[in-house]
Design brief:
homodimer, alpha/beta, Peroxisomal Thiolase, Chain A, domain 1, two-stranded antiparallel sheet, 14 helices
Chain lengths: 390, 390
C-alpha cells in the first residue's frame, strides 16, 4: 500500500565541490537555511531532524553531529539523530524521517545530509572510505572502492560485452548534464576521447569513471498531508520506500554483475507505491562509478540485465531520451560528498518532478525512482516519488 | 497519547567488560542470538534492524556496520541502519525502531547496540570519545569527558552542597548492585573509603566516579500487538518516548547543574505515556559519572533539584529503597560499551518489569523510565516502559 502521509514541501542543496574555507557545520546550516526559506517553513515548526553523514569522525574528528549541527543551524533543542550506512547514509535518514511522519509522532521534520571531505589528505579520505568495506576481509588487505567496482566492471564486461567506451559514455553524459547545473562540482562537458584517457585508477576504471572527493550538504523538509497545505499547493509525495542489505564482502556474493540489495529494495519500493519500472519517467541512480550507473539502471528494472550499455550508446538515458537517468549530472560530475548524496538525489528528483530544473528539465516528470546505495551495495535504499497532482 | 503498538518481547545482552578475543561482530551476533532464542523469534521473521554504535570507525576501523553485522548474525538481506548520537546511540536506534513499528511499515524488528573499545589503546579511546564533544570549541582545546563532568560536579556542589562523599555513595551503590549481576564488568562491592581514594581523574571526580572502558552488545526484539501474542503472553509495552537536544558546548549552557535535554525528553516521554514521575517504580539512568546519576535523577523528576544527594545518602535509590535507580549496577559498575548502553538499559528494564531480575529484583516493578544521554547531554532519549498486564 502506498505511503499515505509523506510529502516533500522543500528541498535544497549547497554547491558541491572543494568548498575551501567552508566548514562542516556551515555547509549544513546553508542547506537548512535554503530549504526552510524556500518553503517558508519557520524553523520553530521543525519538530525533529534526521541527518545522514558517513564518517565525520575520521574526516573532521566530529561524532555526535546531530545536536552540534542543529544548534549551529538555529534548530537547537529538537531531537536529531545521525544515520549511517556509508554512501547510503542520506537515504537511510530519509527513511527514518518517513517512518517518523507515517507513525504520527511528528508532522514536520528535516532530513539533511552532509560531508566535508576535501579538508583531509587524499590518504586520509581513502582510509575513511575504506571503512565502508569489510575491514577484516577487504579493506585491510588493500581492496579499495575503485578496486571493488573495477571487479564488478570486469564481471559485467565478461558476461555482457560491456566496454570501456560504454562506461566512458556514462561519464560524457554526466558531464554534459552537469555543465548546466550551477551546483555541480564539474560544470563542463568532456569528449569521449577525454573520458577514455588511460589514467587508470583500478582497471578498467579510469579517472573519468570515478566520482570525485567533494564537500556539500543537502536538506529536505517532509510534512504530513495536513501540514503540507500550509507550505505549498504542490507537494511531492513519497509513495514507496524500500531498503535491503547484502553481504558486505564481495567473496560472499553469487553475482557481481548485479547488486541484490538494489533489486530487493526496488522491488519493495515499487510494490509499496503500486507502480512498476515502466511507470517511472526518469531515475536518479547512485553512479559512484560509471559501471555503477549501468548496473543500477538494470537492477531497478529500467533495462534488462546486460542491456543498459546499449541504452547509453543509443542516448536513451540522456536528458532528452526516453528514460533519462541522472539528468543533473549524477555523483560523477556533480560530486559525491558521501552523507549528502542520498539527500541531494531527492533534491534533484523534487526539482525535476516540479518542472523547475531549468535547462536540466526532463520532458516527462510525473513520477520517478531514486536509488542510493552504500559501499558495494551492502545497503541500498530506493524511493518512489510522485507529484501530488498526478 | 501513549504509543499503541510497540511491544518488547525479548531482550538480552552479552557480558560487558574487557572481552579479550571477542570481536565487534561476534559480540553483536551473540546478543542477537540470545534475544531471538529467548523469545523463540525465528530470524527470518525479523524484518529490519536498527543498530546503535558510537564510533566503530575509529575503534575497529569499520563503518557501514549494519549490513556487516546483520550478515554475520544470520540476518543477511534485511534493511539495517546504524544510528549514532554518541552515548545515546542505542536509544536513538530504539526510537527509530519504535517509529518503524508505529508507522505500520514493519511489525517485527531488531534493536541492537554494540561497541568494541578495549582492543584500542587508551589514548585512541580517549580521542574517539572526544569526538562526542564539540571538536572546534571543546575537545580540540583539551576538554575531555571527565573534565566536562567535573565542571558539572563543581557547579552542583557549589549550588546545592553536594559532596564528594555523595558521589562516592552512588559508586558504592552501583558496585553493590553489580556484585550480583553476572553480566557486569565489576562484580564486586567497594567500600565508601575505597570509592573516596583520591585518584583524581578530573577534580572532583575520582577513579570510582567514572564508568569504565568496555566491550559489549545488547539486543531487543520489538513487535506490533498482533505479532507479540505469538511470542509471549506478557510483553512489555513502550508507552512513551522522548528525545531532545541541547547545545553541544558547555559555554552555551545557561545552567550546569541540570541538563535541559534530560528535562525536555522526560517531559515529552511522560506526557506521551500519560504518566508522571511518581508513577515510575524505578529508573534506569545514564550514570557515565556518578554526578551524572545525581543530576539525571533530578532531571527526570524523581527528586527536586538539589535533593538527589540526600536521597542517595538515605538509601532511597538503593535496590530496596523507595525509588530504586540502576538496580543492576548502571554504567559505573556494569560497564559502558558506548553504543550498547542505551539498548542494555532497556534489557535491564525489561528484566525488572517482568520480575526476572533475580537478586537484583526491585520490589515494585510495573512501570519504569529509562534515561540515556549522549556527550554532556547534547542528546537525551527517555523511554517509559510498562508491563502489559498493568
Amino acid at each position: 500500500m502506498p505511503l499515505k502521509n509523506t510529502n516533500i514541501v522543500s528541498a535544497a542543496q549547497t554547491k558541491f565541490g572543494a568548498l575551501k574555507g567552508v566548514t562542516f557545520r556551515e555547509m549544513f546550516a546553508e542547506a537548512v537555511d535554503k530549504a526552510t526559506t524556500q518553503a517558508g517553513v519557520p524553523k520553530k515548526e521543525i519538530q525533529a531532524a534526521f541527518i545522514g553523514s558517513f564518517i565525520p569522525e575520521m574526516l573532521v574528528h566530529q561524532g555526535h553531529t546531530a545536536p552540534l549541527l542543529l544548534d549551529f543551524a538555529g534548530l537547537k533543542g529538537i531531537p536529531g539523530t545521525r544515520h549511517e550506512a556509508a554512501c547510503a547514509s542520506g537515504a537511510t535518514a530519509l527513511r527514518a524521517a518517513i517512518m517518523a511522519i507515517e507513525s504520527g509522532i511528528y508532522d514536520t521534520v528535516l532530513v539533511a545530509g552532509v560531508e566535508k571531505m576535501t579538508s583531509s589528505s587524499t590518504a586520509k579520505v581513502t582510509e575513511a572510505l575504506a571503512a565502508a568495506a569489510d575491514d577484516q576481509f577487504e579493506s585491510s588487505i588493500g581492496l579499495t572502492f575503485p578496486g571493488v567496482f573495477g571487479i564488478a566492471a570486469v564481471a559485467h564486461m565478461q558476461r555482457y560485452g560491456t566496454t570501456e567506451e560504454d562506461m566512458a559514455l556514462v561519464s560524457v553524459k554526466a558531464h554534459k548534464n552537469a555543465s548546466t547545473n550551477p551546483l555541480a562540482q564539474f560544470q563542463k562537458e568532456i569528449t569521449l576521447e577525454k573520458a577514455l584517457t588511460p589514467r587508470y585508477v583500478a582497471w578498467p576504471l579510469k579517472l573519468f569513471d570515478c566520482s570525485p572527493i567533494s564537500d556539500g550538504a543537502a536538506a529536505v523538509v517532509l510534512t504530513s498531508n495536513e501540514k503540507a497545505k500550509k507550505y505549498t499547493d504542490l507537494p511531492v509525495k513519497i509513495t514507496g520506500t524500500g531498503q535491503a542489505s547484502a553481504s558486505m564482502d564481495l567473496c560472499n556474493r553469487s553475482d557481481l554483475t548485479s547488486f541484490s540489495s538494489s533489486v530487493d529494495a526496488s522491488r519493495i519500493a515499487y510494490k509499496m507505491a503500486g507502480l512498476e519500472p515502466k511507470d517511472m519517467d526518469f531515475a536518479i541512480v547512485h553512479d559512484c562509478f560509471t559501471i555503477a550507473e549501468i548496473i543500477a539502471s538494470e537492477d531497478i528494472g529500467f533495462f534488462k540485465p546486460g542491456e543498459a550499455a546499449k541504452a547509453v550508446r543509443d542516448g536513451v538515458t540522456a536528458l532528452d531520451g526516453d528514460r533519462p537517468i541522472n539528468p543533473m549530472g549524477g555523483l560523477k560530475a556533480v560530486g559525491h560528498p558521501v552523507g549528502a548524496t542520498g539527500v541531494k538525489q531527492v533534491v534533484v528528483a523534487y526539482k525535476e518532478l516540479l518542472g523547475t530544473a531549468g535547462p536540466n528539465q526532463v520532458p516527462k516528470h510525473d513520477t520517478c525512482i531514486v536509488h542510493n546505495f552504500g559501499g558495494t551495495g551492502a545497503t541500498c535504499v530506493v524511493t518512489v516519488m510522485r507529484r501530488s497532482d498526478v
